[in-house]
Specification:
The structure holds 2 protein chains of 2 kinds. Chain A is built from 10 helices and 12 strands. Chain A is an alpha/beta fold. In chain A, α8 crosses α10. By secondary structure, chain B is an alpha/beta fold. The radius of gyration of chain B is 16 Å and the shape is globular. The chains are: A alpha/beta, B alpha/beta. Chain B: It comes from Fluviibacter phosphoraccumulans.
Chain lengths: ~250, ~220
């Protein structure tokens, strides 16, 4: 049976893993390679690196991180942050990423998703969507870390991106991100049920029950979390054991 | 004795990951990316990976004049197909109505859009993530890997061999499908051993040391 995936997410800047809330109060969480190896040993199903470097002249540091990680960690590796063109996708894949996540650039120019998936295959292209609730049962796509409204409806946008060749949707609730209150389950479920491709739920995980809810209530194929793993609150193993107890298929 | 492993490089997909994982387990063996026929011809064993659309993969193989070397290798030395590298061994794929290499008889078909899982929810395509591989037949490449171990898959199409006798592994996604086939010196698998953690590395290690009896 296909297992539901647990994906630790590592926010990387200047070659270090950091974690904060809405880009403020960043705490250093350590060396990316060391952390990725630890999660691999704990049974993580994938690793996601998010490059949150603001200045473009430091962008290439992430390539070195990806290269070093791919030589030591033999599970799928997704990299996102600052991807603007097909050449960026290629560079990251060449460095050893298995999937590349596109966010703002897809909103600016949706054709980029089509071009990238045509060139490297849908399986390599993840479209990341930052969603904010604007009315009951309605969510809008935001960019720039949740600061810029786009006017796009999240569900319609997710469907369009799948049609354009996204192999997967990484769905983050801006309302929940960093709150530890759990995923926005109504959002997760609405998008998961609407698109034909897998959805990764993200934003808000504070305990293991939240991870399980993302799958069983939110219908997500995978759940992504950062803080609960980084600071020793839980291991990936504990998360999987918990989900298994809830009757969710996991790779142990 | 030399043990040079050629990873066929026709410009499609995750060659680097495959080569890196092989190097990780290769010991004394040498791993080379082979973008010319002679590197395939002189290798002791050949790995044939692939990602992307099958028609594009076949076209790239021909542009680089690698088709004959791949066909010859599959007939003469330990040969490991991965993902599209499994699918291309067959006669034909529904994906882009593409002809394959015809080394193995059978078709490549897309997962239906209306498949449902045990929970009654629609199964997503691509089939992406970790799924269990049932070892339907013993094979040296399964050595040290538990039956029903999890491997990482990402694909929308699966092979349907004419001869069920070549199937050595199955997985289930709405229905059982062929996850691995073997015949003589050829072993080919739908999932990605290079991304399947410990069990995937074990399969690659088994391949590096595999010495099938050649006809």
């Amino acid at each position: 049976m296909l297992a539901k995936r647990i994906i630790p997410c590592l926010d990387v800047t200047a070659g270090r893993v950091v974690k904060g809330t809405n880009f403020v109060g960043l705490r250093d969480a350590g060396d990316p390679i060391e952390i990725a190896r630890r999660y691999d040993a704990q049974g993580a199903d994938e690793i996601t690196f998010l490059d949150i470097t603001a200045s473009s002249d430091q962008r290439d540091i992430i390539l070195e991180v990806v290269e070093a990680c791919a030589a030591q960690v033999f599970i799928p590796l997704t990299v996102g942050g600052g991807v603007r063109q097909v050449a960026d996708v290629r560079r990251l894949l060449h460095a050893g990423a298995d999937k590349v996540s596109i966010n703002t650039a897809a909103v600016d120019r949706p054709e980029l998703v089509r071009e990238a998936s045509d060139k490297v295959g849908s399986q390599c292209i993840v479209v990341a969507i930052d969603a904010k609730q604007v009315a009951p049962g309605r969510w809008e796509v935001f960019t720039h870390g949740g600061r810029k409204a786009t006017g796009l409806d999240v569900i319609a946008w997710a469907c369009k991106m799948a049609e354009y060749g996204a192999g997967e949707i990484l769905l983050t609730s801006m309302d929940r991100d960093g709150t530890c209150e759990g995923f926005d389950l109504a959002l997760t479920r609405a998008v998961s049920d609407a698109v034909p491709v897998p959805v990764i739920a993200s934003g808000g995980v504070g305990n293991l029950g939240h991870l399980a809810d993302g799958v069983s209530e939110g219908h997500a194929s995978a759940v992504l979390a950062a803080s609960i793993f980084h600071f020793g609150q839980h291991t990936v193993q504990e998360a999987k054991a918990f989900m298994k107890e809830r009757g969710i298929p996991v790779r142990l | 004795m030399t043990n040079r492993i050629a990873v066929v490089d026709y410009g499609m997909g995750n060659l680097r990951s495959v080569a890196q994982a092989l190097r990780h387990v290769a010991g004394e063996a040498e791993v080379v990316l082979a973008s010319t026929p002679d590197l395939i011809e002189t290798a002791d064993r050949v790995v044939f990976p692939g990602q992307g659309a099958m028609r594009d993969c076949m076209a790239e193989l021909d542009v680089r004049h690698l088709r004959q070397a791949v066909v010859d290798a599959a007939a003469s030395k330990p040969f490991l197909g991965i993902c599209i590298g499994l699918q291309m061994l067959f006669d034909h794929s529904e994906e882009g109505d593409a002809a394959g290499l015809g080394i193995l008889r059978g078709q490549v078909k897309r997962f239906a859009a209306d498949l449902k899982g045990a929970d009654g929810l629609r199964l997503k395509v691509p089939h992406m993530g970790w799924n269990q591989v049932v070892q339907t037949k013993p094979h040296p490449l399964w050595n040290g890997i538990a039956d029903q171990a999890f491997f990482y898959f990402v694909h929308s199409y699966h092979v349907v061999p004419d001869d069920a006798g070549i199937v050595v592994g199955q997985a289930d996604y709405g229905h059982p499908f062929t996850a691995a086939v073997a015949r003589d010196n050829v072993f080919a698998i739908q999932c990605h051993p290079e991304k399947s953690a410990r069990d995937g590395l074990q399969l690659l290690r088994n391949f590096v040391g595999w010495n099938p009896v050649l006809a």
